[in-house]
Amino acid sequence: MNRHGKNNRITAIAVLMILLLSLLPAGCRDGADQVAGGDKVKYLIGVSQANLIEPWRILMNEEIKDEAVNHKDLRLIFTDAVQSSNKQIKDVEELLAQGIDLLIISPNDSAALTPIVAEAYKKIPVIVLDRAVEGYDYTLYIGPDNVLIGRDAGKLVAELLQKQGGNVIEIQGLSGSPPVRDRSEGFREVVGSTGHINILDTIIADWQRDKAEDKLAELIPRYPRIDVIFAQNDYMALGAYRATRKLGRKDVKVVGIDGFAGPTGGLKLVEEGILEGTFTCPTGGREAVQYAIAILNHERGIPKKIILRSNKMTRETIPEYLQAREGRQGNVSRTGGRIVVGFSQVGAESGWRIANSESIKQAAKDEGIELLFVEADQRQEKQIETIRSFIEQKVDVIAFAPVVATGWEGILKEAKAAGIPVILSDRAVEGVDPSLYTTFIGGDFVEEGRRAARWLAAKTKGWPTVNIVELEGTIGSAPAIDRKKGFDEISKDHPAFKVLYSASGDFTEVQGKEAMQAALAIYGGDIQVVYAHNDDMALGAIQAIEEFGLKPGRDILVVSIDATRAAFKAMLEGKLNCAVECTPLLGPQLMQAVKWHMAGRQLPIRIITSEEVFPSELAAQEYSSRRY
Ligand code: AHR
Known about the structure:
This protein is an alpha/beta fold. The chain folds into 4 domains: about 1-140, Response regulator (Rossmann fold); about 145-280, Response regulator (Rossmann fold, 3-Layer(aba) Sandwich), CATH 3.40.50; about 340-445 and about 585-615, Response regulator (Rossmann fold), CATH 3.40.50.2300; about 445-580, 3-Layer(aba) Sandwich (Rossmann fold), CATH 3.40.50.2300.
């Protein structure tokens, strides 16, 4: 159907729905709702909300509506599943029947909603908000890092209790939902590590204020000393506060999560001294609409996951937060006029890296951003020196791909002290406070390792032995650590998998070949599989196997990560069996993040790129369109 025909259809549906809805009494409208963005409707977006009992979800819908107003050719249809997964499944079916172009869904229950989300994704793009579904059958996920929020809450509770420690009660949301599990995990990890905080009891209050108040009213008399109540949302925290005050327990401190503005929001509760603190849990509503438009306009470089940043809210931090929010009209370039970005690159160790450098340089050019680009020959000291020189040159933004995961705290603190934001590109860092960097943009290396192992498990099904040589990346680098971790995680369930030999090839072809020669010298024909952490090392291993007189891809299966053109060529030649994608084309997303920062937007804490798996059977059809 052409767009004109579609517009007519949408207008007819819209008129019909408005008529129907206006005939229904308010209580029977079942949460269906429409927002008109303008006269000419180009896109119809369905928004399936889990419930509208939680104020946080009402805010999510409001943010979606507010952002939609900026896009005049957009119509939204809202549904409310009233906390029922069965109802939400029906809602999605009805939205699909109405011909929506894209679905935004915040699932009531992750497992129950997974099949219908996968079904919808076969037909249209799907953005999943807040609660993830299982697997990867969706276009984009946007949500918070609930483990991190739980940890931050734990740190605040530890600060409140100081060295003497104390007794805590935890109030959880709806039993079995992922944010409940994750927030609790993060919280318990931190308070448990103090050794002097005792979790007295845990109650489940389904995210509801009144349930929290009633259940606590019964529980409190049992405990003569309660120091802090941690509630997994502000609404339940308010219920907790009421219960304590009704029972005359004025000394009990309360901490929550959500931190939104407005008369009933957590910010006000903190300002009024009802809560000691809360943590913002962004809804992602605005971002969902912005990305929906980008997806519907077929823009390139849409990420797979966007993890939003949470902010700590106490009476001390609120003024600074509000000031930053008000002042986010835009950051002024320190270098006068043009935006200057300093980028410290790992080096030029692989085909992937060369494509990554090109992507960054090209994107800077396209966006009119001045780029200071320095390679570090895989040396951390050189990266630290380079970053320090960027600080001295007072660039607007520093970006870097950390060669190894640890040892960055000092230089990141120097950048923070100089007021220069830092973006992590491609590789993440470990053991630093996330407030020391603005965002991370890159792949999910653990998942890449899992994907390689899953492919291998399917390929070797029924084999009595699967003898593996693992060629690891640079020792201590995030991709080497995580790709091993992901592979090992899946391997555990496959007793035939046995890593005979494992060595680092430093992500280079030459060292990959040397490591494989060493493995062949010891294990020779017993080797059945090579798992290489990147294509370059796999290509080196292929040469070693051939020189040893065996046929790579047939006598020894080879699976690697990156999926560069060179890997595709090897697959077409029958020498490589599978390439797991890790995209180096990060430049456009990096420069977009720079621009968003300069425009005053708070960036997500992590932007995870979209990646696929290419078994050799798919190589021929993909090769010609391969961009790196
Ligand atoms: O950090 C990404 C990794 O670094 C790539 O997989 C590898 O080829 C590169 O050198």
